[in-house]
Design brief:
By secondary structure, the chain is α+β, with helices and mostly antiparallel strands. The chain is built from 4 helices and 7 strands; from the N terminus they run αβββαββαββα. Strands 1-2-3-5-4 form a 5-stranded antiparallel beta sheet. A two-stranded antiparallel sheet has the order 6-7. β1 and β2 form a beta hairpin. The two termini are 18 Å apart.
Length: 190
């Protein structure tokens, strides 16, 4: 079962998100921070072809500092991107909490209904490679603990890789899921 792609959407172009969306923290983002968080600042962090990304620095109710990662995008593709990322990271984090940052929320900006966000725990990324043995152990744990809610292979909402929709329909076997996923990759390349 292929995903229908709206021909009006441009999948191979950057999502030109203005930097202004990460110069302040939108009220809807603030509302999704843990209770008692006080925003001290926001600054650009990392690079992305389709989004703007930032670190939100906060002070927690107990006086400790805590940072959050914010990804901002826009329009219908962006909304699908951040909702799918939140749901998939939530599923991964539930199965293997040490494998991913803790997802906090996704939503739409209060000041602009075409701008959408993904919010998670901030991890200061490095160029260092992770320990292979530890990484493989966590990956094996993820696969051992993952349970399909339907007993099939797939995911309950669409996910996006960059700006390209991924195959997520439920299938009876891993082989069928993989085959349909690869077919969609080739269709998107045409």
């Amino acid at each position: 079962m292929a995903i229908t792609i709206d021909p009006e959407l441009v999948w191979d172009q950057p999502n030109d998100v203005p930097e202004k969306w990460i110069e302040t923290v939108d009220d809807n983002v603030v509302a999704r921070l843990p209770e008692g968080s006080w925003v001290k600042g926001i600054s650009p962090y990392g690079a992305s072809y389709w989004t703007r990304t930032a670190e939100i620095q906060t002070e927690q109710a107990d006086g400790t500092s805590r940072s959050f990662f914010l990804k901002v995008t826009q329009n219908v593709v962006g909304k699908a991107m951040v909702s799918g990322e939140y749901e998939s990271m939530k599923t991964l984090h539930t199965a293997s909490p040490d494998l991913t940052p803790e997802p906090i929320a996704w939503g739409t900006f209060a000041q602009a209904d075409h701008v959408h966000f993904f919010l998670c725990e901030f991890i200061d990324m490095t160029d260092d490679l992770p320990d292979v043995e530890t990484s493989m152990k966590m990956l094996a744990e993820l696969h051992a603990k993952s349970i399909s809610p339907t007993g099939k292979y797939g995911f309950h909402i669409p996910t996006i890789q960059g700006t390209v929709p991924q195959f997520t329909a439920w299938t009876d076997s891993w082989e069928d899921f993989f085959t349909e996923s690869i077919k969609l990759v080739f269709e998107n390349e045409e």
